Amino acid sequence: MAIKIFIDQGHNPPGAVNAGAEANGVNEGEVNYNVGIYLAQMLNDDYRFEARTSRTSPDQVLGTSNATSLAERVRMANEWPANYFISIHGNSNPNPAINGTEVYVYELYSQSYVFGEFVLNGIVDYVGTNDNGLRVNSSLFVLRRTNMPSILVELAYLTNYEDAQKLRDRQYDFAYGIYRGILNYFGFEPL
Q: Could you read off the pLDDT of 147-171 as tens digits, one per residue?
């Protein structure tokens, strides 16, 4: 039986409610969408997995507010029901020197925590971003409300020039880093 992974592509497309950050000519909603689609294709091409995404087209808008958008993504994952939940995001910071990748989980030393470590290592090893570590944030809605092990991945910082270039030019590589992390977590070899 295939392992079911729900990929939440974070924010809505540009111009929509909850559209996400934009910096250095890179839009978070577009990056989230593309990385999620690449990751879903990789997983669905691997008989050991089945993947679904929160958005099936780049212009799709989920919800009419931040709250309803978050609730819809959680509902979709819980009702499927997914075995794992990955929320993809791009980060920003007022300090343009801040860069790197981090993964958020609901609690320490949980199944999500271990899953998040593998995904973080996959991205850092494959894309070459700085490892900002695994972080606990129990206030994040998607981590609190999903019924399965869940992680929120901050791929890199749109506000850092070098990270922004990676987010613009290496979206497939970010997805592949996540995929490799998932394979390593399950002890699977690539096909």
A: 999 999 999 999 999 999 999 999 9
Q: Are 36 and 81 in contact (CB under 8 A)?
A: no
Q: Within 13 Å and on the Cβ side, how many CA atoms surround 128?
A: 5
State how far the Cα of 21 lies from the Cα of 89, in Å rounded to an integer. Answer: 10
CA-CA distance, 129 to 109, in Å (whole number)? 24
- pTM, two decimal places: 0.97
How does pLDDT run across 124-136, given as a tens digit for each residue?
999 999 999 999 9
Q: End-to-end distance of the chain based on CA atoms, in angstroms? A: 17
pLDDT (mean) for 58-78: 92
Distance of CA 25 to the CA centre of its chain: 20
Cα angle 77-118-144, degrees, rounded to a multiple of 5:
35
Tokens found for residue 162? 């070098």
In this structure, the number of other CB atoms found within 10 A of the CB of residue 144 comes to 13
Asked if residue 39 lies in contact with residue 47, where contact means CB atoms within 8 angstroms, the answer is no
DSSP lists the bridge partners of residue 6 as 52, 85
Residue 98 carries which DSSP code? -
